[in-house]
Each structure stands twice: as C-alpha cells, then as structure tokens.
Amino acid sequence: MALRARTMLALLLAAVAVTCARAQLHDNFYSESCPSVEDVVRKEMVRALSLAPSLAGPLLRMHFHDCFVRGCDSSVLLDSANKTAEKDAQPNQTLRGFGFVERVKAAVEKACPDTVSCADILALIARDAVWLVSIDYWAILQMTRYVWKPNSNAARSWFLQSKGPFWTVPLGRRDGSVSISNETDALPPPTSNFTVLTQLFAAVNLDAKDLVVLSAGHTIGTSHCFSFSDRLYNFTGMENPSDIDPTLEPQYMMRLKSKCASLNDNTTLVEMDPGSFKTFDTDYFKLVSKRRGLFHSDGALLTDPFTRAYVQRHATGAFKDEFFADFAASMIKMGNANPLTGSNGEIRKKCSVVNH
C-alpha cells in the first residue's frame, strides 16, 4: 500500500508541478537566498505545537482563508486602522495564530532579511501543522531538543513516525498590499450547500475532488457553536428547539445541543472531529458517512454521488495512504491559487503591515 501511495503521490505532484511552473513557484526557490527557511519555520512550529497542539487547526485554516481571497498573497494577515481588512470580516474573526505567524516571520527575517514572503511562510506553516500533529507527541518533544536538519538520521526517524501527509511546498509567492473585508465573500461558508461549495472552489481552480479532500482538514481543530447552531435550533427559521436539521444524526444532534445551549451561544467551542481533533487522520470521513459532520458543508458532501463515494471509501480507514496523497496534492493545488510572483507584490518585513 505504501509503494502504491508513493507512486500515486508522485504522479499527482508531477501534474501539479506543471501548473506551479507556470506560476513561477518551485521547490528550490530559496535554495541560494535562504536555504535555512524551512528549518527556521519548522523549529518555531515544533516549539509552538509542543506547548499548544490545538494551534495546528487554526494555522491550517488561516492558509485556506488566505488562498481563497485574492490568492495566496498573505492578505489575510494585514491590519487595518479602520477595521476594513480581511481579518476584520466575520468569517475571519475566529481565526487565531496571527501573533505566532509574526514570531515565525521575525525568526525568518533574522536568518534571511527581506527575502521570504509571509505568503510562503503561511504555506510552510500549514504543511508543518498537518505533518506535526500526525507525529506522536513524545517525538515532537524530542524534536525541540535539536535544530532541524532535513537530511539527518533524526529527521528521517521522525518522518517515519508521522502517520499523516507530507508534501514539498512550491515557493516563490510574494505579498500583496490590499486587504478588503467584503472580499471574504469568496470564502466557502460552513452553511454552504454543494452547489455553492463547488462554485466557490471552482473560482480558485479547485474541483469536486479537491472539495471533499480539503474538507477533511476539519479532522483537526474546533469550531464555535454559532457556525452550526442553526442546525440545532433554527433550521427553517422557526427558532425553537424542535426546528432541527433532519439530515443530522439524532444522537449526535443531542450531544451538540448539550454543548451549545442556544442559538445565541457565541463562545462555546466544539471539537470538529470528536475524540481525535488534535490528530490528522481519516476519522472525519467516518463521521460524515454517519451523518455526524458538524457543518452544513460537511453534510453536503453526501448529496453528490462523487463526493459521497469518496467519503464512504475513506470512512473504512483502509485507504489512508491514498487519502494522504490526495490531501498533499490538493494542498499544493490550493497553494498555487493566483499567487503574486516575479516583480509583483513585495516581501513584507512584518506580516501585518505593508512596507510603505
């Protein structure tokens, strides 16, 4: 199975590489100008996740939210004095990890001043977030004792301990200087049906397979009740305890109601993948196949024959390597969404503000 997965991944990445080449992104972009960039980013990631493993989900989500608006240009990181930037919009108000991204950027700037974009740092952080939460916790603690060396025996040992996907991130993105809150309408809301989801994904050149694969990012992290509580109390607009989403499995619905006491609960956090929300695995598909997907968008995957078949196949847990290869390929494809390259954009010194 492992050999088959490696072959599949090689073919998928080869196809994606053609697209990346057109966008001037490539694996060795910083090989001369900043060869230590991945070491620096991973060292900071190891430190952070050893203390707060739950940060992995938000960091993956941040890269997703960046790429769906204006492409992967780190516009989601920009501050605005009058609160009109992407991060001020409702879909991004629950994002967290901005301070950590600035810490990583500062470390990269110290190693290689004015060289590596915030957009590339976000892409590397997202990859390492997925990979590191797939490693046994004790191994992450071990990694904090060493400076990461990709070709060392320790690195190979840690790689073998990973139970999740890993991919080489094509680099060369530059940072944008525009961030507009209203443009977050391009983000797929958790309330979306299948038609809306496919339209929003198609806008960034992602297809139905990318949709079902990337939705599995919900296997790590948590969500606020307000992102799905209409399924529990206001499915048709009646706003009462009996106005429920009939597609949600009843026992799971009652469990959610015990956590989210009302439609107005704006603070409670719920695990998106109960029982393994700190581990990147295929349990998400098991939940969705049992009608226990947390969001409307999760349940929507069962309304289309192709995505339903993909969910059911991977709900068995028998094709993990296949899914991990698919996830790696879709993440590379998403990371190539309309990047600024060449002389476009800039290399920000701080991720939250433009240089001038």
Automatic annotation (TrEMBL):
Its cofactor is Ca(2+); heme b. Ca(2+) 2 binds at residues 219, 273, 281. Ca(2+) 1 binds at residues 66, 69, 71, 73, 75, 86. Transmembrane segments: none annotated. Binds 2 calcium ions per subunit. It catalyses: 2 a phenolic donor + H2O2 = 2 a phenolic radical donor + 2 H2O. The keyword Glycosyltransferase does not apply. The record marks 61 as: Transition state stabilizer. InterPro entries: Haem_peroxidase, Haem_peroxidase_sf, Peroxidase_pln, Peroxidases_AS, Peroxidases_heam-ligand_BS, Secretory_peroxidase. Residues 1-23 form the signal peptide. It is an enzyme of class 1 (oxidoreductase). Removal of H(2)O(2), oxidation of toxic reductants, biosynthesis and degradation of lignin, suberization, auxin catabolism, response to environmental stresses such as wounding, pathogen attack and oxidative stress. These functions might be dependent on each isozyme/isoform in each plant tissue. Belongs to the peroxidase family. Classical plant (class III) peroxidase subfamily. Belongs to the peroxidase family. Ascorbate peroxidase subfamily. This is Peroxidase. It comes from Triticum aestivum. The gene is LOC123095306.
